[in-house]
Amino acid sequence: MFSETVELRGHIIDSLILPKVLDEILTRGAGFKIAEIKVGQNRVDQSYARIEVSASSEETLAEMLLRLRQHGAEVIERADVQLAPAPADGVFPENFYVTTNQQTFVQIAGKEVSVESPMIDSAIAVSADKRSARSVKFYDIHEGDIVVVGQQGIRVEPVQRDTDRTSIFQFNATVSAEMPKTATIREVAREMQRVRQRKGKILVVAGPSLVHTGAGDHLEKLISLGFVQRLFTGNGLAVYDIESALYGTSLGVNLKGGALVEAGHENHMHAINRIRQAGGIQAAVDQKIVTRGIMHACVRQGVDIVLSGSIRDDGPIPGVTTDALEAQRIMRDKLRDLTLVLMMGSMLHSLAVANMVPPSVKIVCVDIDPRAVARLTSRQTFRAVGLVTDIEPFLRELTQQLEHPDATSSGVSAS
Amino acid sequence: MFSETVELRGHIIDSLILPKVLDEILTRGAGFKIAEIKVGQNRVDQSYARIEVSASSEETLAEMLLRLRQHGAEVIERADVQLAPAPADGVFPENFYVTTNQQTFVQIAGKEVSVESPMIDSAIAVSADKRSARSVKFYDIHEGDIVVVGQQGIRVEPVQRDTDRTSIFQFNATVSAEMPKTATIREVAREMQRVRQRKGKILVVAGPSLVHTGAGDHLEKLISLGFVQRLFTGNGLAVYDIESALYGTSLGVNLKGGALVEAGHENHMHAINRIRQAGGIQAAVDQKIVTRGIMHACVRQGVDIVLSGSIRDDGPIPGVTTDALEAQRIMRDKLRDLTLVLMMGSMLHSLAVANMVPPSVKIVCVDIDPRAVARLTSRQTFRAVGLVTDIEPFLRELTQQLEHPDATSSGVSAS
Amino acid sequence: MFSETVELRGHIIDSLILPKVLDEILTRGAGFKIAEIKVGQNRVDQSYARIEVSASSEETLAEMLLRLRQHGAEVIERADVQLAPAPADGVFPENFYVTTNQQTFVQIAGKEVSVESPMIDSAIAVSADKRSARSVKFYDIHEGDIVVVGQQGIRVEPVQRDTDRTSIFQFNATVSAEMPKTATIREVAREMQRVRQRKGKILVVAGPSLVHTGAGDHLEKLISLGFVQRLFTGNGLAVYDIESALYGTSLGVNLKGGALVEAGHENHMHAINRIRQAGGIQAAVDQKIVTRGIMHACVRQGVDIVLSGSIRDDGPIPGVTTDALEAQRIMRDKLRDLTLVLMMGSMLHSLAVANMVPPSVKIVCVDIDPRAVARLTSRQTFRAVGLVTDIEPFLRELTQQLEHPDATSSGVSAS
Amino acid sequence: MFSETVELRGHIIDSLILPKVLDEILTRGAGFKIAEIKVGQNRVDQSYARIEVSASSEETLAEMLLRLRQHGAEVIERADVQLAPAPADGVFPENFYVTTNQQTFVQIAGKEVSVESPMIDSAIAVSADKRSARSVKFYDIHEGDIVVVGQQGIRVEPVQRDTDRTSIFQFNATVSAEMPKTATIREVAREMQRVRQRKGKILVVAGPSLVHTGAGDHLEKLISLGFVQRLFTGNGLAVYDIESALYGTSLGVNLKGGALVEAGHENHMHAINRIRQAGGIQAAVDQKIVTRGIMHACVRQGVDIVLSGSIRDDGPIPGVTTDALEAQRIMRDKLRDLTLVLMMGSMLHSLAVANMVPPSVKIVCVDIDPRAVARLTSRQTFRAVGLVTDIEPFLRELTQQLEHPDATSSGVSAS
Fold first, then answer.
1. Where residue D384 falls among pLDDT bands split at 50, 70, 90?
2. What structural domains does chain D harbor?
3. For labelling, which of A219, C207, D187, D374 has a CA lying 20 to 30 Å from the CA of A415?
4. Does residue B240 belong to the interface with chain C, where contact is any CB pair within 8 Å?
5. What distances in angstroms separate CA B136 from CA B72, B102, B120, D307, D341, one per listed residue?
6. Contacts of C91 (CB under 8 A, 6+ apart)
């Protein structure tokens, strides 16, 4: 039998860390002995556990320690991390450590160093003076850069559950299609107001269906009210928004009149052509070609727009970053200082953001497809709220709440 | 080769009848020759076609004529229908004719008789004096009753497309999750106002998710405004509505406060007990136990409620018809004089209604699941509008439109 | 402040009971102090915790104790249960205790009595001699019957997690559409073989889509191999199965030939008529009218069939219980001695079963709609396996595994 | 009133062209008069109609003619197309004609010229000598290139319905989750065999879920059997396939063992690193690092792989085209000579292909999400078959059919 002693500290029972650790051990057919346990007597107290883990092979033990470490367990007799140089540009050394989306620390020369820009599925590069560490993607690495390998000397600090038990962000919870949404939307509105008051930053990630469903007016209003600092989307939303501003249609469907009569699938092509001719969105706004809509509001309010391209784009319009790697880099830079992300109807962009967002950011994810909501919120331990609903009425109600925070939420009961 | 000549009359091109007929023939590997065709020169004109159909076997020809007849084709040299007595109570004679949900005529002694209460998947019983015919279910039939058998002497008149090309009911169309719904909801509201003005009857068919999503207030308002004459639902909606009236929760979820905290799954059981103790819904309203909600509004407004039971019911409360056949009979009686049906979030009750509704009734079907909408609207040729959306915001917007028909639809743009 | 002391015993950390209890307390804004905790040193050891719970009102405290009791907490200084007579037939006394689907014990005259037939959403009736107790539905109760009221003297024993960590039933887990299913199907097959060896009983709950998708052959085979002891379904599956046996179609779709050509929606009506004429399924098999299919196999193998009616039925055929309450009673009787339930493509029947199934039964739930799987497995703590997949290939692979347990699962790799 | 005369030719009734044309006219509130109609007497005969269309404004008339032209109507007194030079690189002239995905002809100097590489949402560029025309995307166009503008002189030839009425590709049909699929899969297999015999080319478009569900083995087999000439996918499928080849897992889920235990989300990162180190997929196969799987089979069989990047990629591995425009160009080139496309579980890549595929190509689209299938097949008039099912069992059955075409489709009934 091979064994090792690990320690757990913090709200390990309340945040489900201890049970998860024991569960991992048992699921792998390994054994444990709790050498010592001190459970916090009151809810603000921290707890402590020392556990001897044993497995039948050294390999199983090593793999298990890797898992336990991701739950915040640390192996006693802590050693320094092991390091190795990158063998080539864009290539990590064998057996490099793959990060989670939790805050991570590495021990170098007996001292713990926090890993900057924690991000899922990255490696950890250590600076030449070994005083700092940061998470890196393949494209960040150059031959000879020093990278953490193996499992030793690494400590993960899981996000602990919010102690404010009135916040909807203490959970990782989803309001399903069959549940009432008004109260949750009101809480999202309150959170956005708090963020604005404290000069925090809100990112909207959205897909083209936002415009198709007629929700463009609401997002335009949200931007004008100052609740959006950044917008990540693709060529599609921009094109349909401009089509709507120029022709009143979205993919040929008239947004105001009867949705059942189609008119003019060419409109979006002519919209693209006009923006290309003008030289871009900013230019089209300056030349008063585009005088309303989401893009117009973004230009007016100085919202930072990131448009990333995809292989299904028509056009695209100028300003779209067609290279996926380049777009990833731009998005990552603009994710560092966020407070809240609102994801609406875009699997592609939302997954890209979920891959790079720091663990501290709060996430609200809205989609009519329950599978999309489940995929996007599943990566977060806490701080993620999902709503399975139609984007248009969601945004309408959210905007009403933000414009008239004192009014009751429902137009019906107000009368 | 076996062949037969059929005739088509009416808006056979505009209503897609001629193409469907030719399609049926070709799909079955049969042949046709168009002996004569007169296409209406203008849109109000009717068209006419005479087609010789031929097939390799008599059986194929007979089956094809059966199909063609459902598209309105009639076989020339029309004969009287064939009749046979029912061999036992609840049993039709061999080879009985199975109806569609189109208006049907049978020729008896050289004269055409219209079939009363046309309904899908029924037989046709002829009165003893052979002057009238009506569609019958298995449970309607007694030994010796005279029933139509075979295919001969039967003429079907498909619903022709509405000539009012501004009506959303001229189509069988669905507004998908990715399309704007505001304009369609406005048209539904207008139609409901027209129906109310003309003293027509509106049926609401709803499931329990209507209450869970917090839309109960909106339906209560709709009833109070006089837009609902009948309500078909089950024990569940009634129980959750009364739970909401008594305790403010629905299946233990607080409808006004945070949806994310559950409280009291027992509430619906205590609600059932109180209604059983009181003796029923009407009694509970009279005794002022229930003073608000959908059921309360129905009692006050004299809305005709049909509660049908199912095997997943708790309780049930008094007034629920637990026998499925008895419930079918009650519903069928209350479907005869309807103008419009609004189906929301109930596959079970909606399919039961779709099975029995006369072809002239307009249908609006709302569900967040696109498959439910597709199944419910697929049986109608025209006059069915589907919306894939969340019920709560749909009903909120519909109710606002009906209360304030002059206001713009969006609370946002109204400000 | 109002406070009370509760105790927890068993695998309270491994089975997540302690964390859930603390979570309930914190979520309700109450406080706790852990007076004593003994964590099992090894995985077979039980743990123990004594916790002082405090709340700001007596009401909150009482409600919280109710919740904690459902997680297995018991209040120290245990008292006898409180009892009250039923005020009328079918009516429980005020404040009756509502059961969960966990094993429950009540203390009467200082002695603990186990509640027979534990079932969710029931009351507890105590025998006249107060020596036994059983869970009762509204229709079971008569005026004067003694019923448990309030929260005191009740102990709940949650299902503890299976200690066999190789079993798929130790979890409440769902294999989503995007995950591999072969290994899980193999485990389900192994479990079914174990059940058959030990003379356990397997119930199949199925809906009509099983026949529509062409999976009827597989279920017929499963029955012939002796893997099904009971079948709960509705009129629909029986009718389409018999339509398939008589005409080779299901709702008019040819099951063997091209699925894209429709033929004969009347077939199911003629099938119903023939069974009504014959006098029922058994009679139709005896008279050699029905010589193949699921119903035929059930009659041959002596499988206990429960057919319950619904308001969307055509017919129905003889043998269908059209009264929902009567059908509930029949199903409940046949659920007592089950080992495993296989639910496929029937929300209605599966929910009815999930409402009444004892906590010890293992559940396998298969549906192509992830929401259906989620609803059906969510009520179980452990022992439920969900698969989001097509029923036809699932049943094909399961049947192959059961026929040829040694063969590799995939026809491709076998070659 | 403004009016114009249009002509329709071909199987205009059988292919639903005449009804669609009349429908367009009526829906827009315009009028028509059928000046002449000759309906083909037999199924091989073509039909002809001459229709006078009238509208209240010149604008409405012009727009209507545009629509009618897309249904194949041609305006009598045909004129030459109007041409204008592109004002800048990547910008079309004002009012450029936007193509559909139908075969299109333009009249230049009185002669009709066929537009090469017909593709939806493009412009038409005319060669300098005005003898040829081709469809162009924005990025194809340079300042001064001659482009078709307006609506005049353009004729569209809609795909006419296949006269082989036994082919599943005569329809645009979808086999829903509730329908039998075996017969359709058999027909797809037969079509693939015909294509292989005639040296046609089959393209597979697939997403990563194909590997996650354990269907990689089947696709590998399909490639080895010579049924795949091209594979369009992204970084994800390639990475998970190589992870599976190297470690036996897919996104950390063990494909052969129990799907319910997760192991090693790092595996896909280490897989990426090894391919980057090796220098690419071909190199990794040459160096015997990758010795099995889809990518390995592609390299061995000389299948043309197009890997296009997206913003959610990890890595990517060498060979992925990260620029979306560049990837579009590569895909377009490889779509010209296809016979059949099999789309499985990839919305992004499938939509990109659907945007560029020539109208003659047959499409089979498989997804467990009915909305994905609906979106992908909706653009095709005919020749598209959708199946709403799980990819793994679909591919298993298809591969079995292709390996053993004489065997019955079901392993169960074969025994």
1. confident
2. 1-76 (3.30.70.2690), 78-158 (2.40.420.10), 168-414 (3.40.50.10690)
3. A219
4. no
5. 21, 14, 10, 61, 49
6. B273, B276, B277, C138, C141
Q: CB distance from C273 to chain B under 8 Å?
A: yes
Of B256, B259, B394, the CB nearest to A181: B259
Cβ of C63 within 8 Å of Cβ of B310? The answer is no
Q: Give the integer Cα–Cα distance in Å for D227 and D189.
A: 10
Q: Are A82 and A153 in contact (CB under 8 A)?
A: yes
CA-to-CA distance for C390 and C393, rounded, in angstroms?
6
* D 362-391 residues inside an 8 A Cβ radius of A: 369, 371
d(CA C243, CA D229): 43
Using CA atoms, how far apart are residues A143 and A123, in angstroms rounded to an integer? 14
The region that residue A121 occupies, defined by phi over 0 for left and psi between -120 and 50 for alpha, beta otherwise, is left
Q: Which residue of B has its CA nearest to D166?
A: B27
Instruction: Tell whether the model's pLDDT for residue D39 goes beyond 90.
Output: no
CA distance C215 to C195: 23
Report the distance separating Cα C410 and Cα D9, nearest Å.
52
Question: Quick one: B2 exposed, middle or buried, by C-beta within 10 A (0-12, 13-18, 19+)?
Answer: middle
What proportion of chain B, given as a percentage, has pLDDT over 70? 88
The per-residue pLDDT of chain D, averaged, comes to: 86
* Model pLDDT, residue C139: 92
Chain B partners within 8 Å of C325 (Cβ): 309, 316, 322
Cβ-proximal residues to D201 (8 Å cutoff; 6+ apart), any chain: D195, D229, D230, D337, D338, D339, D340
Give strand ranges (E) for A242-397.
249-250, 253-254, 304-308, 320-321, 340-344, 362-367, 384-388
Mean pLDDT lowest among B35-39, C193-197, D104-108: B35-39
Amino acid code (one letter) for B398? L
CB spacing of B138 vs C352 below 8 angstroms: no
Q: Would the pLDDT of A410 be above 70?
A: no
Closest-approach residue (CA) in chain A for B172: A260
Residues D32/D22, Cβ–Cβ less than 8 Å: yes
The predicted complex's ipTM stands at 0.85
Tokens of residue A34, six digits: 């709790």
| Mean pLDDT, rounded, for A62-86 | 82
pLDDT at res. A22? 76
Asked if C34 lies within 8 A of A26 by C-beta distance, the reply is no
pLDDT, averaged across chain B: 86
Question: pLDDT: is D319 or C34 the higher one?
Answer: D319
Would you say residue C265 has pLDDT above 80?
A: no
What is the nearest CA distance from B260 to chain A, expressed in angstroms? 7
What percent helix, strand, coil does chain D show, rounded to 5?
Answer: 35, 25, 40
Residue A216: per-residue pLDDT:
95
Which of C276, C313, C369 is closest, CB to CB, to B324? C313
| Residue A3 pLDDT exceeds 90 | no
Distance CA C367, CA C383 (A): 17
Tens-digit pLDDT profile for residues A231-262: 999 999 999 999 999 988 887 777 765 544 45
pLDDT, one tens digit per residue, over D305-354 is 999 999 999 999 999 999 999 999 999 999 989 999 999 988 899 999 98
**Residue A163 clears pLDDT 60, i.e. is over it:** no
D236: contact with A, CB 8 A cutoff: no
Beta bridge partners of A126: A133, A146
The pLDDT of residue C408 is above 80: no
Tokens at residue D56, please?
């209240």
Chain D residue numbers touching A371 (CB-CB < 8 A): 369
Q: Strands, E, within A176-316: which ranges?
A: 202-206, 230-234, 249-250, 253-254, 304-308
